[in-house]
Amino acid sequence: MAEIGVGIDLGTSNSCVAVMRGGAIDVLPNAYGEHTTASVVGFKSDGAICVGNSAKANIIHDPKNTIYSSKRLIGRYYFSEEVKKAKAICAYEIAEAENHGIRIKVGDEFFSLPEIGAMILREMKSIAESRIGQPVHKAVITVPANFNDNQRQATKDAGRIAGLEVLRILNEPTAAALAYGFGKGLRQRVAVYDLGGGTFDVSVLEIGDDVFEVLATCGDTFLGGDDFDDRLIDLLADEFSSRHGINLRNDLYALEKLKVAAEGAKKALSIDPEVEIRIPDVIHGAEGQALSIERTLSSEEFSGLVQDLIQRSFKVCDEALQQAGVVARDLDGVILVGGPTRLPVIRKAVSEYFQQEPQADVDPDQVVAMGAAIHAASLVSEDHASYLLDVTPLSLRVGVAGGLAEPVIERNTPVPIEQMRTFTTFQDFQESVKIRVYQGESRQSEENELLGQFEFAGFKKARRGEVAIDISFEINADGIVNVVAQDRETGEQASTTITLSSGLSDLELESIVDEGRTARIEAIPTDDAGDALAPPPPDPRSEMVVIGAVSLVKADLGAGSGAAVEADALAPDEPGAAGARGAAEPDSVLEVLPDEEYSTVSAEPEELVVLAKEDEDADLSLPEETVPLEAVDAGSADLFESPGTDLSEDDPDEGGQKG
Amino acid sequence: MASELAPTEIVALARLIDELDYYQLLHLRRGASISEVKQAYHFSSRAFHPDANRHLSANLQAAVATIARRITEAYSVLRDPGRNKAYLQHLEAGHGVRMQLSEARAEAGRRAVEQKGRTPQGRQYYNLAEAELRREDFAAAARNLQTALTFEPDNEFFKAQLKEAREKIR
Questions:
Q1: Which of B89, B110, B131 is the last residue of a domain?
Q2: What is the pLDDT of residues A604-632, one digit of tens each?
Q3: ipTM, 2 dp
Q4: Do A477 and B49 touch (CB under 8 A)?
Q5: How far apart (Å, rounded) are the C-alpha atoms in residues A94 and A85?
Q6: Cβ–Cβ gap B51/A378 under 8 Å
Q7: Are B138 and B54 members of one domain?
Q8: Other CB atoms closer than 10 Å to residue B130's CB: what's the count?
Q9: Measuring CA to CA, how many Å separate A545 from each of A49, A194, A588, B12?
Q10: In the A/B pair of chains, how many CB contacts fall below 8 A?
Q11: Catalytic pick from A34, A62, A149, A194?
């Protein structure tokens, strides 16, 4: 049997798996015939795990055990803005782990984010296996172009925990461009406008037959479809508050209902110019009476709510075009990626911005998985058919004296690449240096993302500036960073593949893989073809959002398209919808979790292990300039300095007195 | 279309890599156009991209990766006209075959500023000279460049322009 490699689009809201065999690309449907599967993991009281729409259906009546949008948290530090935001709005429990990592607490168990990702990947793997009819061990997994090293590494770990060999971590817009241009012999410049559930990316590519060269990529990791939902949630909650004097945001169940209704209304607006939002019994009033929300929402009104978000995305487009050195009219095509780009308000704005209609024959929900599948097929065969020349989305920096971060590899530099810089000591007789590596666009080190830090010692003791430390910074084709420091005189080396923020060491990863607790996913009973024997669980949106009867008989809903599936799911007369009504009823009202205070000053990542490197081919070309490297104890105000760390031996002042 | 390179060729190239300048690495002549640079980058990537060489042994893959990293480095410097010129100067000054990307970038930026003139008077006289050069009035251009140089005596770009203008007079 020929070896199979699949492409998996691990999305914030939905995931998709595809395979290319014999030149044909198939997006593989789950047991219920859906081409995308909700990226939601549900933990049942009996310990079983379910993934997908069946888990999502529980979002209202079991919000604490239903984990959604976990991609927003993967590879992040506990103290980051994104985690604070998630803690304020998510009903599930986000706990702090070692090294400022994050764990999701479910019952008595703590799960790392790569494990949650692995559960979704396992589900996608099993969908692929049941549809292809043979085991799948290899995959290309896509990530937003703007993912930093921590997030890429954590995603790769998720693949490994799921029992997959990750052939390549591929940028979503690059995958989309590959799916668009593969095998067509194009010579074009294209832009990919990728608005996902949680992130926005835009990439400008030059396609030259079999070569796909990314000229520039820019993004906003805080802009996504979820923000569009939030605008709608705010509108509904504010209106409710002024009418009934009750803040729905303070009630977990009511908030989940608002979320579900807002997402449903947004999706319905992709098809219909007007939707009716109905949330019966959203909360109980002071006298115990049931209060509801009923309201119509027009496309124009929605457009007004989100216009500034769309304009924000064009600021990012301006930047990408400028970095690529092209103007909008140079482009031969615009490819839209991500569910929110189905919204007419976005399509219209995008065609005005780029002065052309976006490509119509690209499915925004499936194109990324298709591109990943093409690349996976190409990587498992020896007959390589396309070449992806990507760039690093963020500047790679090293911390230097004075709390500054010196750029080593600028953003939008092609990868794989290696750069060597020479640094020197900051104090007389300094015995060790702490090397901190950052990604980001700020000169101030604390405004960038810390990828990792390691201590380097063993060089000769000398006056400040007399020691030369060569540091090699490498970014591989996955966008993953490797750093090696070497003393020019002694040849002593220290290196790290930076893995701090996934919070998982190789050892931990091994034990997670051995424990196999991500494997206890409940299988959906299916026939030999992989189709479910029982009907899917009802979509909780079906009772909340009613789209006009006109849209349901609209003839232009292409069969099998995502829009048609959505319309079906939203039909008020869907069988099973009535049954769900009772189940979705809240039985108690919970207090909202207090918004905790986080102090970034208290952030202290644990010491990184310094790995000895035996066989690195040291490059001995010697750049002339040397930059003073921060002493271990210098800059104690630095965000990641550990005040409690025992570094007394290395105290540079002590050394100075001796001299 | 996978790499057709013999293992011995890959190993030899990886070993030689610190002796090849970026032009040699990409099989370009010095002064090649930007579109030639891009073409050469695409051509070399087809042979040396890590994706295209997964079937090789670990040692050979490491050699290919070394070459691939240097190819992207070469492309990153040569694809920009300013950086390309800065690299030529770097080579001619005997500073070695590699150039830091940050250095190339800074140097290109410095050159861009220098070309317009760093002082108001320098800029003013250079603008006059530039117009005269376009009219092919080399004598007048040389006078104005001479004046511009009194304000910016170390402006290499002005010096080069002056030299060229004087050659044209003869």
A1: B110
A2: 333 222 222 333 333 223 334 445 555 44
A3: 0.79
A4: yes
A5: 11
A6: yes
A7: no
A8: 16
A9: 28, 26, 24, 66
A10: 85
A11: A194
